[in-house]
Each structure stands twice: as structure tokens, then as C-alpha cells.
Amino acid sequence: MEEVDGQVIQFVECESGLDIHKVVREDLDDDGRPKRTGTMWTASAHIITAVIGSGVLSLAWAVAQLGWVAGVASLLTYGCITFYTSNLLAECYRSPGTGKRNYTYMEAVKDNLGGKMNFACGMAQYANLNGLVVGYTVTAAISMVAIEKSNCFHRRGHEASCEVSHKPYMIGLGLFEIVLSQIPNIEQVWWLSIMASIMSFGYSSIGAGLAFAIMLSGHGKRTTVTGVEVGPGLTAARKMWRMFTALGDIAIAYSYSPVLIEVQDTLSSSKPEIKVMKKANMISVAATTVFYMMCGCLGYAAFGNSAPGNMLIGFGFYEPFWLIDLANIFIVLHLVGAYQVMAQPVFCEVESLCRRKWPKSEFVNREYPIKIGRRNLNFSINLFRLVWRTMYVVVATGLALALPFFNDLLALIGAVSFWPLTVYFPITMYISRKKINRATIRWFMLQFVNLLSLLIALAAACGSIEGLGEALRIIK
């Protein structure tokens, strides 16, 4: 690549081996799209926003079901597996030989494994993303309610009946997300991801800090090597289901593969994207594992075998109430950003399909720049984007309002989609790209990771189904 008369000339090698050249504008990337500006830090922020959700506060409960040995081993094992398979997936961003970019996870699967696998990937990926969007709406509303309840308990005592409706908060969050959803693409929500990442560290640190304070005060509850013990109120079968659910919670908590390729597509091409993405994977998974270990282990040490499902939302702590309120505010702000990180790939896919189907439609393609006086705000409105994204948020909010037990359903969706998206497709694409022969040591090792993850995903799905059945029985 060299500069001639103010233009960038990029030389490429065609299949015949002859050098040809094409003129590329300085403000465009090699694929003709606007120059990407993402860095290792913005990619890390996107990943941390996608991974560290308020579910980190339920890891104390998960460790309590498994005990010290299996709980800690699961946290470390799945951190290692996620880091490894994420690096395998990052290698699939560009096609071997041609160097063509794959803009989405589905394109990467189609490029490496063919059309049938592409369809299966799309089903798992978009079920996961759409489910998370609805789940985030439910969880953010629960955190907002927790703030009101915390203040009520502080005024009236811990035994007071402080019932608060979630519905107004869900509607309010939906209205706010309608506005944020007009941000055109995931690259432009980098500032929201950085804010959300800071918030996730904030509430995780508060939860871990409060648990550590209980330990120091000498009021920590009894813990065991094997976790919650079978006895009055807990049958052996129920213990098994809880262990399955806990394994699924830990595995799913690490998963960010559904948005990895889309995040990698935001990176600047000034450096090889795969190297930058692998560094972002390392930073993100390492930071995530540290916080998961802190919250899971300190929370279990503080609450013992009676650890609540969520240390902050479930009122494992009541005081200091202002700190609990602050932590729940952090959770809400984090989920506002995480909502966009998960929704943007869905928005992009639908809009790309519509632009290809109706390339001459002004409603679909025309951008209307926004100005104040003569000043251009570098922001535009597209009518199709405005209508379609508004409808999407309205439907997601409606589902959150209609399904009070949606988190149990979300756990099932996550359990079913975790194995194919985080483990199976990255490993299978890697075997195909590297032409790894069957029955070799490397092939057996990769398939062992694949099989282990499949078994845990099936166990987690069984636990989720049992939890969903329990939720339906309670409603009846």
C-alpha cells in the first residue's frame, strides 16, 4: 500500500499471481466501508459489557450449590475454555487466502462450514441475543424496584411488606432504549460500552466488598466442600437439579461469542484485527474471571450454603442502604448499555437484508442529517431504522411485561445456545481451516472440549427446564 497524488493505492494479488491495483479513498477501509476506528480497549469494553451482567451477583449461589472444589474449578475451567474458543473464533473474521471480511458470526460459519450450518448458527445466535434483550429488561426493572424496596426497608424495618410493581419501570426503560436504539451501529456505542463496563466493575466490587466485610466481622455462614447438603427441605434429586443449573449459570456467564465477530468488525485495520482481538479476549476474560472469583467465593464465604440468588437484588444485604442503592443504579446503567450491545447485531442484520432487497427505496436507505442552525451534528435519522427499531423495543418490552418468569426461560435459551455458539462452531471451523486430521492428538483434545461442553450444556438445559416447570407451578 502506498500514497500517490493524495490517494491510497492498495496492491492485491489475484488468483493468477499477477499484481493488480485499485484506488481506495483514505476515509474508507479495504472493503469500501467507512474506516473502522475501534481499538483493543473499545473491544474489551464491548466484551466486558456483554459478559459481566448482573448474573455475576448470583455466582455465590452457584458456588454454594457446587461447593468449594467443584465451584472454583468450574469458574477457572470455563474461563480457560472461553478464552481458547474465543481466540479460535477470532481467526475466522477473515477468509483464508482471499482475506475477505466476515461481518457477522453467521457469515463466518457460512464461509467455513457452508449454508446449512449457517442457518443453525443463525437460529442459536438470534434466539440468544433476543432472549438477552428481554431478560435485561426484566433484570433492570428488578434492580429499579430493589432501590425502592431498599429505601422502604430502611424506613420501616426488614420485615415490612414493601411490594412494588415492576411494570412502570419496564415501560420507562423501554422508552429510553427506543432513543438509544437510533444509534446506527455497534461501533458508535463504544462510549456506552465503556460506561457499562465501569458500572459492572462498580457493582461487582460493592457486592464482593460487602461480602468481605461480613467475613471480617466474623459473621460468615457455614460452608462445605460439596456445597449445600441434602437433608430436610432438600432432596437428593433437587440437589442434582440445582447443581446442573449452577454449572449452566457459570458456563453461560462467560459466553460472549454471539457478538464476538461483530465486535471484531469494529477494529481499526491499521494493525491485524486478529492480534488486537486476541489481546482484547485476554484482557476481558482475565478481568471477568477475577471478578467472578471474587463475587462467587467471597459471597459463598459470607452467606454459606444459604447464599441468595442475587446478593444485591435478593437482599443478601440490607445496610448500608445507600450503598445497596448505588450498586443497583450501577446494575441498571450497565444493563442499559448491554441491551444495545446485544440488540445492535440484530438491528444490523435486518437492515442489511432490507437494503439488499429494496436498494432504491428512500424509506429504507435515505439518511436525513440532523442540524441545529447551520451546524451539522454528525448524526442522521433514517425512517426505516426509526420505525423498525422502535417496534423491536416495544415488542421486547411487551414480552418482558407478559412473562414474569422469563428469566427461567432465558436460562433455557442460554443453556441451549451456549454449546453451539461458544464451543462447537469455533472448534469445528478451526478444524476445517487448519485441516486437522481425524484421530490425531490435537483432534481428540478439541473433541474432548467439545463433548465436555455439550454434556454440561445438556445438564444446564435439564436444570432450566425443571426450574421453568417450578415457575409455572407457582403461577398456577
TrEMBL record:
Any one of the GO BP annotations: amino acid transmembrane transport
Pfam families per UniProt: Aa_trans (PF01490)
Subcellular localization(s) per the UniProt record: Membrane
GO molecular function: amino acid transmembrane transporter activity
TM helices/strands, residue ranges: 43-62, 68-90, 126-147, 189-214, 280-301, 321-339, 383-403, 409-431, 443-461
Residues annotated as domain Amino acid transporter transmembrane: 36-465
Domain of life of the source: Eukaryota
GO cellular component, one term: membrane
Keywords per UniProt: Amino-acid transport, Membrane, Transmembrane, Transmembrane helix, Transport
Protein name per its UniProtKB record: Amino acid transporter transmembrane domain-containing protein
Natural source organism: Vitis vinifera (Grape)
